[in-house]
Model the fold of this input.
Amino acid sequence: MDIELPLPKDADAIARVAKGAGVFTSEELDVVQEMVDAYFNPEPRDDHTFVIYRNGDPNSIAGFACYGPTPLAQGIWDLYWICVDRPHQAMGIGGVLLENIENQVRARGGRAIYLETSSSPEYQPARDFYQRHGYECAARFSDFYAPGEDKIVYRKSLV
Ligand SMILES: CC(C)(COP(=O)(O)OP(=O)(O)OC[C@H]1O[C@@H](n2cnc3c(N)ncnc32)[C@H](O)[C@@H]1OP(=O)(O)O)[C@@H](O)C(=O)NCCC(=O)NCCS
Done:
């Protein structure tokens, strides 16, 4: 199994993969960095968790995801980030990361996973990916991120 919990030495690689995906703004990359820093400082915490896909190389990663329990909601979890670096996309790694998260959330009694994404064309592959994996549009907020760019909330029930 190539899915692992990251070690502190993987922090830079996570940031590199996020940047290399080519869809995240600099503000979003800053948030990824903050969540990585928070996760490792001073030691792993349980409000959000990272998982990584190593692809056989102990010194690099091909993808990562970050998820955690939604505060003040029973059995609801948020998927904050999922990202595979460009050369490794469309090889099934995103699907393996997502299934791993769903299994972990189910094992911890989770009822559903929620995630947010943008309606912009760059995120069409991500929206297709989520829908293929059983995520349904639960809400849509017009002109949320910018005029003409909606926020779409996807949900997958695990029960
Ligand atoms: C969205 C994302 C995480 C999906 O990861 P991925 O590893 O490319 O996903 P998968 O490989 O599991 O599935 C994607 C496609 O590859 C296909 N695929 C899966 N395994 C395959 C294989 N072994 N050989 C060929 N194709 C394969 C899937 O059928 C799917 O194809 P389709 O879109 O034509 O139906 C990735 O594209 C990504 O990081 N995008 C940029 C960041 C982003 O948008 N993140 C989400 C917002 S937070």
